[in-house]
Amino acid sequence: MMKLVRLIGSLILLPLYWFSYFVPRNPKLWVFGSWFGKRYSDSSRYVYEYVNKHEKDIRAIWLTRDPNITKHLRSQGYEAYHVSSLKGYWYTCRAGAALFTVNITDINTLGASKLLKFQLWHGIPLKKVVYDDVYHLPEQHGSFIRQKLLKLKKLLLPFKDVYGKWDLVASTSPAVSTIFRSAFRLSEEYIPITGSPRGDIILDSSTSKPSIIQDILTDGEGGITKRIAYFPTHRIHTEELSRFINSLETSGVPEFLEDQQAVLYIKLHYYNLEQHNHAIRPKRIVLLQEHEVPDINYLLPWIDILITDYSSVFYDYLLLKRPIIFTPYDLSEYLTHDRELYGNYEQLTPGPKCGTWEEVLTELTKLFSGQDIFFQQRKAMLEQYHTYSDTQNSKRVTQKLRSLLK
């Protein structure tokens, strides 16, 4: 019944989509959105702020579903509207370009009939994404009739096609372009190597220290010599992740952190925050909340050692040329139930592989004593996956858009 109601609602809204096709576009008006319109973060945010600061002739508008984000941006002197508001729709109709982090629902889908769509994406994929992700792509599942109905729905209701057809997808290197050609079904000419705007934040020496870093363990409480971060990727089933994190307390890691005057920050993917049952107590192990660090790219420059599993965060962290430890404790299960990868995990990950926190402790001990045997492998991967290691990626994205909107 609910599906029928949604279908009727979509048919009622369809004229608004076709109306947007006839609205004149303004090449100097760009709209931005991120993470289904729910967050103010990631590459579209960085380009939005760059344009506001450096490209004064461009009218940059942020679209969101969160009124708190709208209020915050307006207080900063930026222009922002609710995605589904009349202005959100109208300015999407008028925009010459839109910049995304995830998919078309980052902005107002009804007004997006013929604007130039620039997909900035949210990282270099280790896991298969979009059309390569056979586990989650609806067209890959169900009966023959269901698959045909889904294709018919996309044809009749193009604003419901969340992946859509991108005009441009930003890449960081030829190796990444090869992945994106397959994932987005685009030819190379539509995948410019601009670098990821994430890199601008990670490498910018003026990036301010997040308040959570400043507030925890001040000098009066012993100080901090090293900051370690554990950033796992999201999962469908989180039981093993919870057990892995909860095993920290008896692993010897808390004592090691105390001896070394180090701290371990844990930040779960925001998809899994409410599903995790944690019992973290040691003061030098800090479970970060979403409101404390809504965007980890501002945190990465302050991290000395990264621990992760299948998250693409390690590709971004390569820019900093610092050690990475991998924890594929549930690799077989992950590959079976969550995602396939773009290659062999062992070959794609430039660091030691640990199945327990005791093994992580062994690798941390080596790193603290100066043994970093994966330095050259990380350097090689940095060169392979990042053509640029500067802070000009947002500028290159902007220049590419300008060249197409003349």
Automatic annotation (TrEMBL):
It comes from the Bacteria. InterPro entries: Glycerophosphate_synth (IPR007554), TagF_C (IPR043148), TagF_N (IPR043149), Teichoic_Acid_Biosynth (IPR051612). Its main location: membrane. One of its GO terms (cellular component) is plasma membrane. It is found in: Cell membrane. Transmembrane segments: none annotated. GO terms for molecular function: CDP-glycerol glycerophosphotransferase activity. GO terms for biological process: teichoic acid biosynthetic process. Keywords: Cell membrane, Membrane, Teichoic acid biosynthesis, Transferase. It is a peripheral membrane protein. Pfam families: Glyphos_transf. Belongs to the CDP-glycerol glycerophosphotransferase family. This is Teichoic acid biosynthesis protein F. It comes from Paenibacillus antibioticophila. The lineage of its organism: Bacteria, Bacillati, Bacillota, Bacilli, Bacillales.
